[in-house]
Amino acid sequence: MTIEFEPPKPIVQTQVVLKTVAEEMMRSKSRYFDEHEHEIPWDYIEFMHTAMRAMGVGSLAPKEKKESAEAPKEKRPPIAYQLLATQIEALSWGDVGMYLCTPGGGLGAAAVQAAGTPEQQEKFLARFSGEKPAFAAMCMTEAGAGSDTSAIRTRAVLDEKTNEWVLNGEKIFVTAGDKSLTPYEKLDKGFIVVWATIDPSAGRAGMRAFVVEAGTPGVKVVKLEHKMGIRVSDTATISLVDVRVPFDHILGSPTVEKTTTGFKGAMVTFDATRPLVAASGLGVARAALEFLKEKLTEHGITIRYGLPRQKLTNIEREVIECEIMLRAAWLMVLRAVWMADNKHPNALESSMSKVKAGDVCTKITQKVVELLGPLGYSREFLAEKWFRDAKITDIYEGTGQINRLVVARQILGYTGAELR
Amino acid sequence: MYSFEPTDEQKMLIEAVNKYAVNDLRPAAHEAEESRTLPPALIEKGWELGVLQASIPEAYGGFGEHSAVTGVLAQEEMAYGNLAATIAVGVPSLFALPILLCGAEEQKQEYLPNVIEGAWRPYTAALIEYTLDFDPLELRTTATLDGDSYVLRGEKAYVPFARQAEAMIVYAALDGVTQGFIVPKGSEGVIVAEDSEKMMGLNALPTYRVKLDGVRVPRSNRLGGDSGHDFGPILASMRVATAAAAVGVARAAFEYSRDYAKEREAFGVKIAQKQAIAFMLAEMVTEIEAVRMLTWEAAWKLDVGKDDADVAAYFAVTGAMDMAMMVTDRAVQILAGHGYIREHPVEMWMREGRGFAMFTGLMIV
Ligand SMILES: Cc1cc2nc3c(=O)[nH]c(=O)nc-3n(C[C@H](O)[C@H](O)[C@H](O)COP(=O)(O)OP(=O)(O)OC[C@H]3O[C@@H](n4cnc5c(N)ncnc54)[C@H](O)[C@@H]3O)c2cc1C
C-alpha cells in the first residue's frame, strides 16, 4: 500500500459525464422544482434509470462482484464506494434534492444490501434493473423517536397461524416514501424497509427491519412535508395499520436473542451511508463556493493564494478558509469510503467525515450568501437555495451531535450506556 | 488510485520514530523546556533514525530517495514526542533539502555528503524576519550582484542554531524574488546575536537573530547556481513540514487530554462522560484528521510534481495553524486548572500551538 491521491480513471470519467448531467438535467430545473414542491422530476428519473440500465446497473449502489471461477485477472483495487461517493458529490453539485430522487432504492435498498440474506437481496433488489424505474425507502424515524432510535414504537407481531408479521405504527420523515409506495404509471412497484420492535421490553435487541411492498393493505402515505430545502425530494409520513407481510420479509434473524444484532444491522448501514451523505452535502458546498468565486471574478476580485494571513483581504481570507474546509472534508470522505472498499472497519472515519461535512457545508453555504450580499439573498440565483438545501446534511443520517457521540464513543472506548 | 496506507517501509520508519518520541523525547521534554537546553545525546539519537540520510541519494552519500510523504509521516510522529527536539534534529535538513531540491550539481556534491556523514552537526537556514507582515515571498533582506559576488543586507530572526552552524542558507530578495544563498561559517558581516531568542514556546530550541551587514558570497553560492532557483518547492516543503508537526503536537495534546478525561471525576462521573467534554474531544480528533489529510495530499502532490502542490501546501499549513490552536487550547481546557500548571505538558503544547502561525521556515521535509 501507499499514500496516493491520483483519482482513478473511472472516477475522472464519471466526473466529466455527471457534470454534463448535473448542468443539463438538474441545475436548469433547480429553481422550477424548488418553487413547485411535490412535483416529481420525471425527466431526471427516467434519464437516470435509462443511463444506469445502459451501464448494466439498476442503481448507484455498489454491487458485490461474484468471484469468477476463471483464473483471476490482474487485480484492480476495489473502488466501488469511492466511485459512488464521487457520483453523489457530482450529482449533488447539480441539485441535491434531485439526487435524492435518483431511482434504485436509496437507503431502503442499502438496508436490504447490508442486513438481508442473499435470497432477500435477490427477491427485493432485482426490480431496480427492470424496465421502469423503482424506488425504496427506509423508515426509522417516528414522531417520538428521532435520534433515539431505541424509542421506536412501531410493533411487529408474528401471527403464528398464518406465519405472517403484523405491523402497526406510524413513520415520519421518510425520504422518497411517496415514490416507494404510491402507484405511479411511470414507476415499477417499490417497497419500504420498516424498523419495528418484536419485543418492546427488549429495547434495541428487539428491533428488526421488515420489507413492506407497495400495495400491501394497511400501508399508506398520509402526509407530505413542506420543507426549508430539498423540496423536490418527497418526505412522507406513512401509517401502518394491521399490515401483514410474509414471514421471510424480516431482514436477518427472526429470533429475539438478547443481542442487538437487529440494531447493529442499522448501524452497519449507517457506517456505509454516512460518508455518502457527507459527499452529498459537499457537492452543494462546492456548487456554492464555485458560484461565489465566479461572481467575485466578474466583479474584478481575485484571490491571492500563498500570502500570509496578515496580508489578505477579508474576502480572500474567507474564501481560502472555505476552500480549505471543503478540501479537508472531501479527503475525509474519500478516506472513509476507501476503507469501506478495502473492508477496513470505518465507523470512526465514517462519522468523522459526517461531522466535518455537516459543519463545512452549512458554514460554506451560509458564508457564500453573506459574502454575495443582496445577490446571495436573492432568488434570482441559487445561492440562497443551496443554503437551504445544505442544512439537511447536519440533520439526517445522525445529527451533528449524534455523530459527535459516535466519534467520542469510539475514541474513548465507551458504550452507549457510558456516554449518552 | 486513491490510497491511505503507508508503505511497509514507511510503517517501519513511523514505528521507529514513535519509539524515540515516546521513550526519549516525552520524558525529556519538560526538563528541556524549563532549562532551555536540549541534551546533545537526545538530538544525536534522533539524528541516527536517519530521516534526512534516507532522503539523500547514494550519489551524495545518503541511502535513499527524497519523499515528502515519508517526510511528513516521520515529522508528525517526532513532533508527537516533542517539537523543539524535532526542529533541532531536523535542522540540517533546512540546509540540505533545499540544496537537494534546487541546488546546482556542484553544490549538491560539495555540501550534501558533508552534512549527512557522521554525527549530527548544525547546518541551518535563515528565512523569517522580525516584522509583523513577514512574507517569505516579499523579503526585506536583499541580495545585490556586485562583480563576482552577491552582497546580502538585512536582518533575520529565529534562526535555529545560528551561532553553532557550519553553514546556513540565507534567503533574500534578489530583484524582488526570493533566492537562497549559501553562507559559510565565519563569513564577514554575519553578526549573530549573543543570546538566543526568548519566545513564548520552543524554549529548548536555540534560535538567534542574525544581522547581515553587507555579507559577500561568491556568485557560485547562489542556490541553483547562476540561474538561481524557484523558491516555490522549498516554501511548500517547509509548509507541509510545519503542518505535519502541527498534527503531531495536536495529537499529543488530544491523546493526553482524552486519557485525563477518562480518569478525572466530577459530579460522580468521569468528565469524559459529559458531552461538553466528549464533544470537544470528538471535534479535536476530527480536525486533526482533516489537517492530516490535507498534509498528506500536499506532500504527495509535491512528490509527483503537481502544478497546484504549492497551493495544497498553503492550504495544509493554513488549516494547521487554526487546528493546532483549537486543539491545544481545548486540551488545556479539559485539564482546566491542572492544565494551566506547568507540570502537565498541555500548556506547553498550547504555547507551541499558537506558534504554527509563524513557524514556517523552521522545518522542512
Ligand atoms: C428531509 C428529511 C429527510 C429524512 N429522511 C429520513 C428517512 O429517509 N428515513 C428516516 O428514518 N428518517 C429520516 N429523517 C429523519 C432524520 O433522520 C431525523 O430527523 C434525525 O435523526 C433527528 O431526529 P429528530 O428530528 O427527531 O431530532 P431529535 O432527536 O429530537 O433531536 C433534537 C436535537 O437534540 C439533539 N440530540 C438528540 N439526542 C442527543 C444526545 N443523545 N446527545 C446530544 N444531543 C442530542 C439532536 O442533535 C438535535 O439537535 C429525515 C428527516 C428530514 C428532515
Describe the structure.
The complex is a heterodimer of chains A (420) and B (365). Chain A is an alpha+beta fold. Helix content of chain A is 47%, strand content 13%. Chain A folds into 3 domains: 9-64 and 76-104, no CATH class; 112-259, Butyryl-CoA Dehydrogenase, subunit A, domain 2 (Beta Barrel); 263-412, Butyryl-CoA Dehydrogenase, subunit A, domain 3 (Up-down Bundle), CATH 1.20.140.10. Chain A contains 12 helices and 8 strands. The radius of gyration of chain A is 22 Å and the shape is globular. The model of chain A has no long low-confidence stretch (mean pLDDT 92). Chain B has helices at 8-35, 40-47, 68-81, 83-89, 91-102, 105-116, 232-263, 275-304, 309-335, 337-340, 346-355; strands at 2-4, 124-126, 142-146, 149-160, 167-174, 177-184, 190-192, 207-218, 265-266, 269-270. Chain B is globular, with a radius of gyration of 20 Å. Chain B is α+β, with helices and mostly antiparallel strands. Helix content of chain B is 50%, strand content 16%. Chain B folds into 3 domains: 8-116, Acyl-CoA dehydrogenase/oxidase, N-terminal domain (Butyryl-Coa Dehydrogenase, subunit A, domain 1), CATH 1.10.540.10; 124-227, Butyryl-CoA Dehydrogenase, subunit A, domain 2 (Beta Barrel), CATH 2.40.110; 232-358, Butyryl-CoA Dehydrogenase, subunit A, domain 3 (Up-down Bundle). Chain B starts with a strand and ends in a 10-residue tail after the last helix. The relative contact order of chain B is 0.13. In chain B, helix 1 runs parallel beside helix 3 (68-81), helix 7 packs parallel to helix 9 (309-335) and helix 9 packs antiparallel against helix 11 (346-355). Chains A and B meet through strand 1, helix 8, helix 9 and helix 12 of A and strand 1, helix 7, helix 8 and helix 9 of B. Flavin-adenine dinucleotide (FAD) binds at residues 107, 137-141, 146-147, 173-175, 227, 235, 392, 395-396, 399, 401-402, 405, 420 of chain A.
